[in-house]
Amino acid sequence: MRALAITAVLALGLALPAVDTAGAVEGKLVLYTSQPNTDAQQTIDAFKAKYPKVEVSFVRDGTPRVMAKLRAEIEAGAPQADVLLIADAVTMEGLKKEGRLLAHDKADVSAFPAGVHDPAKMWFATKLITTGIVYNTKAALKPESWLDLAKPEAKNQLAMPSPLNSGAAMIHTITLTGNLPGGWSFYEKLKENGTLAAGANGDILRQVATGEKLYGMIVDFMPIREKAKGAPVEFVFPKEGVSAVSEPVAILKSSKNPEAAKALVDFLISKDGQELALKQGYVSAHPDVALPAGYPARGAIKLMPFDAAKALADEPAARKRFSAIFEG
To answer: Which tens digits make up the pLDDT trace of 174-233?
Structure first.
């Protein structure tokens, strides 16, 4: 496990091109993204303020549907997207393995630790969205460890997204089983303790906030935002560490405007792009950008090690193992 202050530098602090360079970047650009509509539009507006000659359009949906659309277009021989900005690096690794991505060789990653971005420079992390524990404030047990969720106090009181239906949940499962003592035995204990594995993050938050369940596994920003609005919830970054998805961005090899696509990637991973992520309420991965209100100091958050390429290879076995535990 490594401190967030050291390892969660999941974006680049590149200086943006000079005005004359920006002026030379033009044409149409199509972005496929899983960002919320508001965030996607804000991102495009900020990019266009620096590159006014680029006409950007976007298609927005959840990562599975975005990928289904892209796959159908690839099958038809007519992929429309230039840039892909989705939830997880494992999906990007799959596209990389298929030879679908274009390397951005000039991206300067020298300031960041090895293993943060794709070493072949085919995808780059843009945010840090961790998964931890949410609990209702009326709960007697205040969890500090993942292992607390298997205690008697949490029996029949834990809900979590299923990795069979969520890429982020699969990354979380692979990360925990690869780092917690006993590996898969942790999930076996959760099943024995009556854990419910179903629903998306929003539903997990609803169940915990209403007291239907007392505990949940969930992405960080949702309960932190709702607590600020008065919801009776607390969010915990467990002491063993957390998993993270990094909303990576990549350029499709089939891009009709690779120069504009590279400019968008550079913006997203620049200091300015990272400041925008902060304004949108996310943890910016850039080490010099502050965290949103409600978060602890960067050094207080630990990231568990995660290898996207290995996770891609391990996913079929992980899916089978989880299914055997929770659905067998």
So the answer is: 999 999 999 999 999 999 999 999 988 999 999 999 999 999 999 999 999 999 999 999
CA dist 274 and 129 (Å) reads 13
Predicted confidence (pLDDT) per residue in 105-122, tens digit: 998 776 666 667 899 999
Task: Dihedral sign for Cα 281, 112, 46, 219, please.
Answer: negative
Q: 177 and 80 in one domain? A: no
Q: Please name the residues in contact with 187: beta carbons below 8 A apart, sequence gap of 6 or more.
A: 173, 176, 177, 322, 325, 326
* Same-domain check for residues 69 and 136: no
Number of domains in the chain: 2
Q: How far apart are CA 79 and CA 190, in angstroms?
A: 42
Decide: 237 and 155 in contact? Cβ < 8 Å: no
Q: How far apart are CA 219 and CA 244, in angstroms?
A: 9
Residue with tokens 């998805």: 245
Q: Which of 7, 11, 3 is nearest to 237 (CA)?
A: 3
Whether residue 108 sits in one domain with residue 22: yes
* Residue 44: both structure tokens together: 């495009």
282 lies in which domain range? 9-126+246-295
Q: Are 304 and 86 in contact (CB under 8 A)?
A: no
Burial of 314 (0-12, 13-18, 19+ CB in 10 A): middle
- R_g over Cα of the chain: 20
Beta-bridged to residue 76, according to DSSP, are none
What are the phi and psi torsion angles at 55 (to 5°)? -100, 110
115 and 206 share one domain: no
Q: Please give the Cα distance from 64 to 50 (Å, whole number).
A: 31
